[in-house]
Amino acid sequence: MINCDPLKEKIIIVAEHDSVSAQQINLTLSENGFSDIRHAISGEQIYEILRPFHEQPEKIGLIVLNDNLPDCKLAEMSHSLSCTTDCFVIPIVILKSDQTPSVILPTSSELGYSLIYQIPSPFSPDLLILAVCCLMRLKQERFLRHQQEEQLINELASKSVIEAKLKFLATHDELTGLVNRNNFERQLRLIMNLSNKLKKEGALLFIDVDRFSLINELEGFDVGDRLLVELTILIRKLVPATSLFARIGADEFCLFLENKTRKQAQVIAETIRTTVENFRFFTGEICYSASVSIGITSLDNASPSQHPGEMILHGRQACNFAKINGRDKVRMYNQNDVAVKEHRRDIYWVPIIRKALRENNLFLMFQPVVQLSNGDISHYEVLVRMRGEDGQTITPDQFIPVAERMGLIHAIDLWVVENAIDFLAALPSYMSRISLAINLSGTAFQYPDLLQTIREKLELTWVDAGRLTFEITETAAVDNFERTRDMINKIRDLGCKFALDDFGAGFCSFNYLKTFPVDFVKIDGQFIRNLDNNETDRILVKSMVEIAGKLGKKTIAEFVETPNIALRLKEIGVNLGQGYAFGRPERNLLEGHQVSLAIMLNSARPDVADNLLQENNTL
Ligand code: C2E
Ligand code: CA
Ligand code: CA
């Protein structure tokens, strides 16, 4: 048989004095491809086998050890095989018989980097193989990591830049003042061991800064670094001073909360999330808002033998789901829930979306966008809806994220574009000045057929391209800058306009805006909603308006929910407004609002405006 997995060529020592059991182990291992199996029937013999390899410990794969082996002190052996450096540890699978009293293993600090797993004897072959493979892979990973580090050190030394590496590491610690990943894992291992013994609670928060690469790419590392420092300080203030807090990647943090239940950790995570959401980061005249996605995993999810790396991984997985679900969210790790439920939801929605596309069960709604200077309707935003099985309306937040994950979003985008143009074409001639804004997904520009569809549909219907504006988000543009810009320019050449949607929601970059060919900047609703009683938001909106104005772009405020806010926006100089104050999304175009809205916007008295608005809504 050809052995493809090099791990299976490593030496496995079967330390078992019972010849029947030794034979069974041998058989199980060789059936699973392990080719170099050696036998020891005493502790002394184990050392005899190991001795010739003391210069090449990587050749030894693992020891399967009967805990009753003559002449073998288990604690001593695990100690001597583990307390070398972490990559040369020799993993041990202990076969624990019922008769022997529970083995007292050395404490974690004594064990250093041990890789030990106990399974009951008589053993289950499946469990034995699982334990052997897992431990050997872990060892291999450590070994490779060690090799890479060695290589790096050698390279650096040979170039006489070892100081540079040290300096690099130093600045990284200096940056946030937090422990690094290695340190974190080491301390977490101790905490996990202790908590396990004392049955204590604890939870790990995996915190990832949303869209951080954007700020680094667009504003430079200095600004990115400063943001990380400010976020660190912000989060530090929210948690007990003794909490173990680490920066484990460029924009990834791990926080361990001792003696906290899952519920308590969730409350803390929510506090962190909302505090970061409300935090504003200034650099010169530019202001950013940031958000974090947080995954939580607790010690009751962790098994006693779990490696701290696994706990971090679970936190990361939960965090990834928070990101998939739109970022700025907290998610709890749950083996069944996280992966399976998400998957089930996708499986549930995919056929419904496909059917809706096939059977035209999508429909469009229109929400007016109003000129704040005189209340005239400038255009309408097109918002897609799905008709459910029993006729109920399904909103996009329920099916767009699934469609994005499952690759159906482009079909929806094309459906909306075609139907919106058809809608314009069918309007009576006295409405020929009405124009529409159409949302495009982040991936829309990855497909060349978008341009073709728009061009062909416009030619076919004779609709003027100037009646279409496409709304795109920052993410869409940033994912593939060159291609996106190229495509936008081509669509603009047809005569269509563009708006940058949800502006400010991510790391809004004004530098980016400078080079990006859009006509409108649509300020994200989070800055508008509380404009009335939030001074910071007013300052922010003002600066967005100023800069957009300088760049020759018009501003639109979304989520204008009250007449007061509309008046404020008008004072600040925002050009256009959209929101429930002017009209909700409707199946048909709202007409006849203009006059009262014009009065409302010219009114210096919000109470008068309020009355007018109520009248308006009862029309
Ligand atoms: P968006 O583009 O930011 O659209 C604005 C959303 O805010 C709409 O929700 C709208 O109904 C809602 N809205 C408008 N005024 C107010 C207000 O005053 N207060 C509040 N609280 N909300 C207001 P909707 O229609 O549920 O759409 C949600 C998101 O779904 C959109 O966000 C957009 O990202 C996406 N979407 C909607 N239609 C389409 C589409 O045709 N294609 C694509 N790709 N995405 C779409
Ligand atoms: Ca939009
Ligand atoms: Ca928006």
Overview of the molecule:
- This protein is α/β, with parallel strands linked by helices.
- It has 3 domains: 144 residues, 3-Layer(aba) Sandwich (Rossmann fold); 155 residues, 2-Layer Sandwich (Alpha-Beta Plaits); 272 residues, TIM Barrel, CATH 3.20.20.450.
- Helices cover 48% and strands 19% of the residues.
- It is built from 22 helices and 21 strands.
- Strands 13-14-16-17-18-19-20-21 form an 8-stranded mixed barrel, surrounded by 5 helices. The protein has a 5-stranded parallel sheet with strand order 2-1-3-4-5, with helices on both faces.
- Helix 12 packs across helix 13 and helix 21 runs antiparallel to helix 22.
- The longest helix is centred in the first third of the chain and has 34 residues.
- The structure holds ligand C2E and calcium ion (CA) (2 copies).
- One calcium ion binds next to strand 18.
Note the beta-strand portion: 15-25%
Task: Please report the number of helical segments.
Answer: 22
Text of the CATH class of the largest domain: Alpha Beta
Please report the distance between the alpha carbons of the first and last residues. Answer: 83 Å
CATH topology of the largest domain: TIM Barrel
What shape does the CA trace take? elongated
Give the uncertain stretches in residue-range form. 102-112, 158-172, 615-619
Number of strands: 21
Main sheet attributes: strand count, strand direction, barrel closure: 8 strands, mixed, barrel
Q: What ligand species are in this complex? A: ligand C2E, calcium ion
Radius of gyration: 31 Å
Please identify, by name, the CATH architecture of the largest domain. Answer: Alpha-Beta Barrel
Helix content: 40-55%
CATH superfamily of the largest domain: EAL domain
As for the number of domains, it is 3
> What would you call the structural class?
alpha/beta
The average pLDDT value, as a whole number, equals: 82
What strand order characterises the main sheet? 13-14-16-17-18-19-20-21
